[in-house]
Amino acid sequence: MGLTRLRGFQDLIGPDARAASIVEERARAVARRYNLSEIRIPMMERIQLYQHSTGETSDIVTKQMYVVRRSDEGAGTDDMVLRPEGTPSVVRAYIEAGLDRRDPYQRYYYLGPMLRYERPQKGRYRQFNQFGVEIFGRADAASDAELMIMIDDLTHELGLQVRFEINSLGCDEPNCRPAFRAALLEFGRAHLKELCEDCHQRLERNPLRILDCKIDGDRIAEAAPKSLDYLCDECRKHFDDVKQFLSRRAVPFVVKPNLVRGLDYYTRTAFEVVSASVGAQSAIAAGGRYDGLVKELGGAAVPGTGFAIGIERTALALQASESKFDAHPRVALVGLGDQGNLAAMSLAHDLRERDLPVELLPTDRKLKAALTIASRMGAAFIVIIGENEIARGVVQLRDLRASTQREVAQGEVAEAIRKAADALPPD
Ligand code: ATP
Ligand code: MG
Hints:
Elements: H1 15-33, E1 37-38, E2 44-46, H2 47-55, H3 59-64, E3 66-68, E4 80-82, H4 87-96, H5 99-102, E5 106-115, E6 127-136, H6 141-157, E7 162-168, H7 176-190, H8 197-205, H9 217-223, H10 233-248, E8 253-255, E9 267-275, E10 283-289, H11 293-296, E11 304-310, H12 311-320, E12 331-335, H13 337-353, E13 358-360, H14 367-376, E14 381-385, H15 387-392, E15 394-399, E16 404-409, H16 413-423
Parallel strand pairs: 1-5, 7-8, 12-13, 12-14
Antiparallel strand pairs: 2-4, 3-4, 5-6, 6-11, 7-9, 9-10, 10-11, 14-15, 15-16
Helix pairs in contact: 1-6, 1-12, 6-10
Bound molecules: adenosine-5'-triphosphate and magnesium ion.
The site of adenosine-5'-triphosphate has 18 residues, from strand 6, strand 10, strand 11 and helix 12.
């Protein structure tokens, strides 16, 4: 047995890990500006949570969940699941804390790994991270639009080009959904021969699922009745308002009447965010409104709306884009001789206090060896300090991108590096 990683699981090393954490850092920063509070949810939940929310007929519940068993138990105990998505846990936690009745208006974000048994490919893994937002207690179109505007802000900051695809699935009860479901059921029964084996089952249990069949969903959705044609007056107004808010903020969107999400709980607004810079797995985020979910999970009738961004897919888009994502120039510091080493240690500390990433290089070897390490680590600057420099209160500052070297007073190194870094185009 080779001790290799499991299929569909990743080791992110160096720049790959950095790209992922830049997406996470920026997402947290944007969340702060939208006054969202953080929620940390467990890695495991009871299986029933997903059956009642994500849905008995969803792909996640029927074939993608990792069911966990303790090492002292026999097979067949199937009540714990490694979380495949965040929304059900957030809703459960919100209800469990009594907030749905006491203080229903809440805005949360979460960040962390999700597990799904997927067919692995680029941008599709069995463990991936999501940054998600959930807003409770707001039924208005502005709150849906604000989520999309927030994603637009984040992708802008990351320098990514994206497009929003939006649709309205109508309300669950009593207006749009029953008529739409009936129309779909009728359509499906009339086109049974064109549906795959699985869809024969799905049709009777939840006809919406035939629209996102992985085998032939696109073609079926094209021919099938559209939810937009079944919207009641309020749902139509809600959708028009969402579009107006987006237009006002110049968020690029297209209406996709075929868009249904793979999860059962969506009502009204549903959307996906598609990036121009990633290949086949181009959806970097998705979300929508879920006005019935809190009640479905045993809470009060509180509306909700939310989304989740895939961190790894967004990081891939970032790496494929032109955008310069590491703003700080890296600095290598070399001390020559015992005194030089001591001085270099202090100088490194000063520069780090000024937020520069500094690596102190080993000096047990020749200067040339240190320079090789510096260029391998991608340093933009090398600072050299020896006894001669100490005596004169200076350092040698070598700018590797401009290929220049000059003397700088010890107290002015940070400033000189910042200035030189700003003057050069990003690498
Ligand atoms: P897809 O249609 O690509 O399977 P989904 O509809 O299952 O996506 P959601 O559950 O809504 O996706 O998750 C939101 C985002 O999380 C996706 O847009 C994507 O960026 C990311 N994501 C979902 N599944 C994976 C995965 N297996 N690997 C990596 N990222 C994923
Ligand atoms: Mg999926």
